[in-house]
Amino acid sequence: MKMKMKPNFFWSLGSTVILTIGFLLFRYVFFDLHGMSQWTFILFVLGLIIIIAASIFSAKRILICTPLGYAIGFVLGMLFNTDSFDPGGGLLNNAWEIWTISFIMIVLASMAWELLHRKKQL
Question: What is the span of the domain harbouring residue 57?
Answer without folding.
Answer: 8-121
